[in-house]
Automatic annotation (TrEMBL):
UniProt similarity note: Belongs to the glucose-6-phosphate 1-epimerase family.
Keywords: Isomerase
Top-level enzyme category: isomerase
Cellular compartments per GO CC: cytoplasm
Catalytic activity reported: alpha-D-glucose 6-phosphate = beta-D-glucose 6-phosphate
Descriptive protein name: glucose-6-phosphate 1-epimerase
MF GO annotations: carbohydrate binding; glucose-6-phosphate 1-epimerase activity
GO terms of biological process kind: carbohydrate metabolic process
InterPro entries: Aldose_1/G6P_1-epimerase, G6P_1-epimerase, Gal_mutarotase_sf_dom, GH-type_carb-bd
Pfam entry (one): Aldose_epim
Coiled-coil ranges per UniProt: none
Source domain of life: Eukaryota
Length: 310
């Protein structure tokens, strides 16, 4: 894939520039614009630009440039398997609550803002393709004054998304562009549409667990003994060295296979009564890398995720 260092210009979409200092892409969308077969840029909620991927088989995905967040994955039946919370805002004042948000360069609370800054910045489109009928788009995020104000390192994040008939795949590549090493943690905080009383996850038996219920500041160490993990109440549990394939029954008639490469951990989350108005409609099954990833200058780390249904 050829990297684009100059402005990325599409018909009626003016991504005027990628500011090398801030890492932000400044975009204006006049109307739906077509870039590659199956890839178009359109105006989304709050007038924010989004990339729409359409498969010839009838599946569709939407990715907002703000946060590089996949907010929708519709299979050919028209069913959306992802969930965006009803209280989500599309005004750049806070991250988009739902879909498939990035947690980088920090998962959870810590030295910088909760879940890091990648979900609070505009990503830019640097490439689009159509591979055997499957639409593909690649987004870019780089360091800038906002990121450096809390995490003073040069980095580049490339995020490739590919849509197939009954699957959506992502590849995240983090590169250290600084002259000094850095470390990070990261996750894809995936919200799946679900009936929480019927949802369950298979594949976690035997994993070491860090259970944040009842005290998130002092997780209880344990081992998962269940073949099928359910969501009977508040759930916030980390699974270390999780297998590369899990199966989510969303309680709505779908079984979603969650495969990954190099996402070593998993997280299950449902807020229960902490979000009383909406907790019944989703569960989070997250691919994560919770041990520090150490990168020397010019080194890269890559992880892949593949979500599919039968």
């Amino acid at each position: 894939m050829a990297m684009v260092s100059m402005s990325f210009s599409l018909p009626n979409l003016n991504i005027r520039r990628v500011d090398r200092c801030s890492g932000r892409a400044f975009a204006s969308v006049n109307k739906e614009t077509s870039t590659t077969i199956g890839v178009k840029v359109a105006e989304g909620e709050g007038n924010l630009p989004k990339v729409v991927l359409t498969s010839p088989h009838g599946s569709e995905a939407e990715i907002y440039l703000f946060g590089g967040c996949i907010t929708s994955w519709k299979v050919p039946s028209g069913k959306d398997l992802l969930f965006v919370r009803p209280d989500a805002v599309f005004n750049k004042k806070k991250p988009i609550s739902g879909g498939l948000p990035h947690c980088f360069p920090q998962f959870g609370p810590g030295a910088i803002q909760q879940h890091g800054f990648a979900r609070n910045l505009d990503w830019s489109v640097i490439d689009s393709d159509n591979a055997d009928g499957n639409p593909v788009v690649t987004l870019l995020l780089k360091d800038g004054p906002y990121s450096r104000s809390m995490w003073d390192f040069g980095f580049q994040a490339l995020y490739k998304v590919m849509l197939d008939a009954k699957s959506i795949s992502t590849e995240l590549k983090i590169t250290n562009t600084d002259n000094k090493p850095f470390s990070f943690t990261t996750a894809l905080h995936t919200y799946f549409r679900a009936s929480v009383t019927g949802a369950s996850v298979k594949g976690l038996k035997g994993c070491k667990t860090l259970n944040k219920d009842p005290d998130p500041t002092n997780p209880l160490e344990g081992k998962e003994e269940r073949d099928v993990v359910t969501f009977p109440g508040f759930v916030d549990c980390i699974y270390l060295d999780a297998p590369s394939e899990l199966h989510l029954d969303n309680g709505l008639g779908d079984v979603i296979t969650v495969k990954n490469t190099n996402w070593s951990d998993a997280v299950l989350w449902n807020p229960h009564l902490q979000m009383e108005a909406r907790y019944k409609d989703f569960v989070c099954v997250e691919n994560a890398k919770l041990g520090n990833v150490q990168l020397e200058p010019q080194q890269s780390w890559t992880a892949k995720q593949h979500l599919s249904i039968l």
